[in-house]
Amino acid sequence: MTVSQTSFGSHEPVLDVQDLTVKYIGDSRSTTAVDRVSFSIGTGEVFGLAGESGCGKSTIANSIMRLLKDPAKIAAGSISFGGRDVLAMSPEELRRFRWQDVAMVFQSAMNSLNPVLTIGEQIVDIFTTHAGLSRKESLRRAGELLELVRIDPARLKSYPHQLSGGMRQRAVIAMAVALKPSLLILDEPTTALDVVVQQEIMAQIKELQRELGFSVLFITHDMSLMVELSHRMAVMYGGRIVETARAHDVYADPRHPYTQALMGAFPPLTGPRVPLSGLPDGVKFRNIPDLAEVAPGHLVAPFGAGDLSIAHGTQATDDEDAALEGAIR
Amino acid sequence: MSHSMLSTSTGSGPARTDTPALEVRGLGKSFPIGGLFSRDSVRALHGVDLAIGRGEIVALVGESGSGKSTLARCVARLERPSEGSILLDGTDVLKRDRFQASRAFRSQLQMVFQDPFGSLNPAHRIGHFLRRSLAIHGKGGRSETETQARLEQLMDTVGLQTDMLDSYPHELSGGQRQRVAIARALAVEPQVILADEPTSMLDVSVRIGVLNLMRRLRDEQGISMLYITHDLASARYLADRTAVMFAGELVEEGESLDLLANPAHPYTQLLVSAVPDPARAGSYDPVRRAELRQAVMASTSCAFDGDPDQPCSGDQPVRHQVGDPGNRHWVRCHLYRPRAGAGGHALAADPAAGPSADAGISVHAGPPASAHPRKASA
């Protein structure tokens, strides 16, 4: 939230996703992992995608990067990046598109570093392969890059195992922004890290974002973290977006029962100790309708009156599957 | 192995009520590092004193590498402590069962692990895990009907359907699996459950359900728990008391709400300030953090200087009383410094940290013999 709110509001979207539908096609049955999802991300905007495992948020990220593998298929919809149709790109175009235009930091990305190469060799590799720079120039740029995320450039000669988890994650983030992409996709960038390190990484991302001005698609299940970092956010459930608005509006005034349940799943750090419940028993959302605007910029999927029974601090229930049920229809 | 022990477990009713269910005194653990002939060791735990009363949940918080899990592994007898004693129900179990955990010990203390995907054998049905626990500890009753009734009761306690007894682990969600792991621990009717990050691998909406289950077990069955986590908010939600661990030593302990509202140790303050909380705008303050880090590693003053009961000391981990004695909230004297090299990750990972912090990392990670020459060249 310390990121200046003025930086978003640009009407030129960097990324525009319309009615994206992704299916996992099996022999006997198919699963719709992402169902008619639309959103756009403006220049310099941080857009959050919240939801639990299985709700399709990582599938969306992989669709944008065109990283989906069989049996996943983009069944319908369009993804356009800076006016270009991502779904129509040739392999050669894709190669340039990835990393140069859109970079992605995966969950526990710090474990994706090659253990037998030094950090320096791995960063130099980016510049020589994607930017065609000389080795010497690449090495200089690699040093600058580490300084950007406040790692001592002497660390270029270190192997991944010699760095702590937080440092490795910072190095991976540095590598992601090496080619100055205009969109950075962060898929649960801090799930494997401690709170203290997590806070540092998030501060680092905010700072880089301010400095380099890229847009961010931020994927996480941690609502508190998301509200802190994002300008706008969307909540997903069973492959559908159930609510989208400015992050603080979602936090202050969650409308959809699922959003409310997700918010209620995080015990507060202040105030009295009240019993919380996850998603209450028996509440499952099916056939989620299209979003409708309830307030300026605040869109919510209409829900039945039967689902309205959710209130904060009610009887604790033990529901497990509600979130998953929707995804495996 | 020791069948004679079996009778003691069934015979030992609740002893004197003032005895803590689990007490750890001066527990220490060092791991040798640096190869076969090296005499170096890294001190993972040092002088840990912790007591868990009957029907009490104590949370142990701290970042990774602070020694939380080592403490749990020592208490569970998966790791042999280098020093100190572990008292279950007032009995020193390290003296009673010198070499490994006895069945009597296991029937008093059970563990629930972090990963419900790894802790259940995929080749067996859910019923099998529970039946084995019952059979090994002789809690299955005399007949198949009694065993079956007990199984159904266990499933009911943890909030699972009885027909899931015939399911395989892969058919269950993470939360359901963790409930099976809890049911398995409950099958032997333990007095103490050690739960090592039981919710960190679960989905968000399921976590609260598991925490609520643990709370219910405490309230209804009077089971004591050591809840190990790095999630301060969940510790506050679940635990009666919270203990904070840093670099293998406890630095602060107190009633959960009081401790998190008035953290007295700079390390606890650092942890609390790192929790994302939208209600607390502008929570990241690099200057304040740098000060806290400095205070954790090399404090030159103690906020409790002049404590009439406990004079400050840089050599002994003096415990200062914080606030109302009723809260049993104490903090370790700020002047006391953790031994060099045992420093926590939080400080080593500081972007602004100098070479001293780097030295800390090389102790933790990697084969030092090969790491050092590269370091020198760097």
Structure at a glance:
With 329 residues, chain A is α/β, with parallel strands linked by helices. Helix content of chain A is 31%, strand content 24%.
- The helix-strand sequence of chain B is HEEEHEEHHEHHHEHEHEEHHHEEHHH
Overall domain count of chain A: 2
Which architecture of chain B does the CATH hierarchy give at level 2?
Answer: 3-Layer(aba) Sandwich
Q: Which structural class should the secondary elements of chain B be placed in?
A: alpha/beta
Biggest interface and its residues per chain?
A: A-B, 65 and 59 residues
> What is the general shape of chain A?
globular
The run of helices and strands of chain A is: EEEHEEHEHHHEHEHEEHHEEH
Roughly how many Å apart are the termini of chain A?
37 Å
Ends of chain B: how far apart?
54 Å
CATH topology of the largest domain in chain A: Rossmann fold
Low-confidence runs of at least 5 consecutive residues of chain B? 1-16, 340-346, 348-378
The major β-sheet of chain B equals: 8 strands, mixed
CATH topology (level 3) name of chain B: Rossmann fold
Strand order within the widest beta sheet of chain A? 6-7-8-3-9-10-12-11
CATH C-level name of the largest domain in chain A? Alpha Beta
CATH superfamily of the largest domain in chain A: P-loop containing nucleotide triphosphate hydrolases
Number of domains of chain B: 1
The number of helical segments of chain B is 15
Count of runs of 4 or more consecutive helical residues of chain A: 10
Number of strands of chain B: 12
Question: Oligomer, anyone?
Answer: heterodimer
